[in-house]
Specification:
Elements (H helix, E strand, L loop, with lengths): L20 H61 L10 H14 L1 H16 L2 H8 L1
Helix pairs in contact: 1-2
């Protein structure tokens, strides 16, 4: 049996003639231009991603600064309300920042509360039911 006549089942026979040269050049130019388009689009998206990450970091920093400013303002409100003759009506804004202000003053109670919550969540449902009784 000659070697060229050997065929493995499930595999096509090897091509007897390669693609014509002009067809290879045409395919190569198509693939090259497609690769360049993808490369340009990738660079564009990476630049956009860097810009968006920078914007997110800037906004997060601004948010943290505003939160700190609000807590300081709440501290001033609390100080002014401590004077005699000043009634303290609390609105939603004060309620929102009062807990953050208190946590900032007493980190141990905050830690203790978080630890208790963590321990409670790690209990089995049976233990939780027993504890609630």
């Amino acid at each position: 049996i000659p070697h060229a006549d050997l065929c493995f089942p499930g595999h096509p026979p090897p091509p007897s003639t390669p693609f014509p040269e002009e067809q290879m050049d045409s395919l190569l130019s198509i693939i090259s231009s497609q690769r360049e388009r993808f490369r340009a689009r990738n660079q564009e998206l990476e630049g956009e991603n860097r810009m968006l990450q920078h914007t997110v970091h800037a906004l997060q920093s601004e948010l943290d600064n505003l939160r700190a400013d609000n807590i300081k303002l709440y501290e001033k409100i609390k100080f002014l309300q401590s004077y005699p003759g000043r009634g303290g009506s609390r609105d939603d804004t004060e309620q929102r920042y009062s807990s953050q202000y208190e946590e900032r003053l007493d980190p141990f109670s905050s830690f203790s509360r978080k630890e208790r919550q963590r321990k409670y969540l790690s209990l089995s449902p049976w233990d939780k039911a027993t504890l609630s009784m």
